[in-house]
Amino acid sequence: MTTCFVAFGGNLGDVAATFSAAADALAATPGVSLAARSRTYRTRPMGDAAAPAYLNAAVELDTQLTPEVLLTEMQRIENRFGRTREQHWGSRTLDLDLLAAGTRVVATPRLTLPHPLAWHRRFVLDPWCELSPEWTHPVLGETVRAMRERLLVRPLPVHADAEELRRRLSRREDVVVVEDSTAAAIRFVSEHSARGPRNVLVPSGAAGGRLADDVLTAALDDPQPLVSTDDERGGA
């Protein structure tokens, strides 16, 4: 059995009810056992600031399925609840992301594990930290708790290798642009640069600025739990 973590997100319809039904559907999948479920959090939308607020949560499950097969089952559940993929970071009824499968490192055209964007997203890290704060990222070498705490510093230290983006970021009060990239919580680098821990590849020009803003929206958010009941901790 492999312990896996799955992130839930959505901002259309009765999202809380959708989360509950989707968790039940995961638990009913052959070879899957739901171990725990986080509280549900209200978070800021990425991309379209005028979009409805998101709800986010996470579940821990034990499974005999391979990560690829589990991903297929998750996508079937998304489709069942009306998920469409017409707009990147657009509004949706249900988004299920496989965050990790044990400590496996996977890099295929279809699946990357651990999830490559989780480390700078509070809407992922906050519910995940409830479930398994000491789970350690096999590439970064940091626990979920440490990844989350790195984003709590204000102003948040960031690094950018493009002068235009440095000027844009320096106008923000919630971040500080540092010259030493090793001291940065997030490093914004040219899309032609090598991938690396805490690197976010951004295009040049206005598109890079918008991407950096979206990344910082998720990193600087302060997700608010909607409930604190114990009945979600042992399954849905």
Secondary-structure-derived class: alpha/beta
CATH superfamily of the largest domain: 7,8-Dihydro-6-hydroxymethylpterin-pyrophosphokinase HPPK
Named CATH topology of the largest domain: Alpha-Beta Plaits
Contiguous low-pLDDT stretches (5 residues minimum) are: 228-236
Count of beta strands? 12
CATH architecture of the largest domain: 2-Layer Sandwich
The number of distinct structural domains comes to 2
Estimated helix fraction = 25-40%
Task: Name the beta content range.
Answer: 15-25%
Please, could you describe this protein's structure?
The protein has two domains: 2-150, 2-Layer Sandwich (Alpha-Beta Plaits); 156-219, no CATH class. It contains six helices and twelve strands. It has helices spanning 15-27, 67-80, 122-131, 144-150, 163-170, 206-220, and strands spanning 2-10, 32-37, 41-43, 54-63, 95-101, 106-107, 112-113, 156-160, 175-177, 186-190, 199-202, 224-225. The strands form three sheets. Strands 1, 2, 3, 4, 5 and 12 form a six-stranded antiparallel beta sheet that branches. Strands 9-8-10-11 form a four-stranded parallel beta sheet. Helix 3 runs antiparallel to helix 4 (144-150). The protein is globular and about 50 Å long. Residues 228-236 have low confidence and may be disordered.
